[in-house]
């Protein structure tokens, strides 16, 4: 079995991130759900899990200290994979160093109850609350998905999209919003020019570019504002 190259190498970096300094004191918000897991315990107080209830009640927990047995069975692995990609502890495999991309950062996972009625209102309320926290020093918002309540086929001005409206406060503060460009050719949701938008390709788990292949279902083209999306291609999680 061939093991994948380190993520940092697959992204084109020449050396691994410094585990103690890369992303130090920077706050990164990840809009997603997340399961607790023993592999994130090293994050301690640097890992916050913010949930927005239907009545707009905000809960903030240190999920790093929860056991895997406390997890919600309905929560998928996507949020956990994102956190581990950014923050996992160093290990060595076949002579190569594997480490998270910004392991010294502070992480806030914002769970706004996606795919339920009222999700855009909860996302806006949760984002506004997170940005008001004085000591989190948030610089980056990772938006890896789009609301199910929006029509994924109808091409329209991006300011009409519920996710864009909910994240206006982050853009107005000058924060970097990084988002996926979508995951299907059938959907026309391509983010606004204010976001740094990432599409994908199949890198087969290798850093060597000659081994990379297009990812057929990754959308590209002009969004509703006439801007070409995405800004950059990166390896899909394989």
Gross morphology? globular
Helix content percent band: 10-25%
Mean pLDDT, to the nearest integer, reads 88
State the separation between the terminal residues, measured CA to CA. 14 Å
Strand count: 13
Structural class: alpha/beta
Gyration radius over CA = 18 Å
| Poorly predicted spans | none
Largest sheet: 9 strands, mixed
Order of helices and strands: HEEEHEEEHEHHEEEEEE
Structure description:
The longest helix is centred in the middle third of the chain and has 13 residues, at 119-131. Strand 11 (221-222) and strand 12 form a beta hairpin. Helix content is 16%, strand content 23%. The radius of gyration is 18 Å and the shape is globular. The chain has helices at 7-10, 78-87, 119-131, 162-166, 168-172; strands at 27-31, 47-52, 58-61, 91-93, 96-98, 106-111, 138-143, 176-180, 196-202, 213-214, 221-222, 228-229, 232-235. The chain is built from 5 helices and 13 strands. The strands form 3 sheets. Strands 1, 2, 3, 6, 7, 8, 9, 10 and 13 form a 9-stranded mixed sheet that branches. It has a two-stranded antiparallel sheet with strand order 4-5. It has 238 residues and is α/β, with parallel strands linked by helices.
């Amino acid at each position: 079995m061939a093991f994948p190259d380190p993520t940092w190498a697959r992204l084109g970096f020449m050396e691994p991130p410094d585990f103690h300094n890369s992303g130090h004191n920077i706050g990164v918000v990840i809009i997603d759900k997340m399961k607790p897991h023993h592999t994130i315990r090293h994050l301690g107080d640097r890992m916050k899990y913010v949930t927005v209830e239907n009545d707009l009640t905000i809960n903030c927990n240190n999920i790093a200290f929860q056991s895997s047995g406390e997890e919600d069975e309905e929560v998928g692995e996507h949020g956990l994979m994102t956190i581990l990609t950014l923050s996992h502890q160093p290990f060595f495999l076949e002579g190569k160093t594997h480490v998270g991309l910004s392991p010294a950062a502070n992480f806030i996972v914002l769970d706004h109850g996606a795919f339920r009625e009222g999700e855009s209102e909860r996302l806006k309320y949760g984002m506004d609350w997170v940005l008001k926290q004085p000591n989190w020093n948030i610089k980056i918002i990772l938006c890896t998905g789009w609301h199910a309540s929006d029509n994924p086929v109808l091409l329209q001005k991006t300011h009409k999209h519920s996710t864009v409206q909910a994240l206006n406060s982050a853009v107005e503060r000058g924060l970097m919003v990084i988002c996926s460009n979508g995951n299907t050719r059938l959907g026309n949701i391509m983010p606004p020019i204010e976001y740094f938008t990432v599409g994908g390709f199949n890198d087969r788990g290798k850093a060597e570019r000659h081994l990379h292949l297009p990812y057929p279902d990754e959308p590209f083209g002009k969004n509703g504002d006439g801007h070409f999306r995405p800004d950059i291609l990166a390896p899909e999680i394989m």
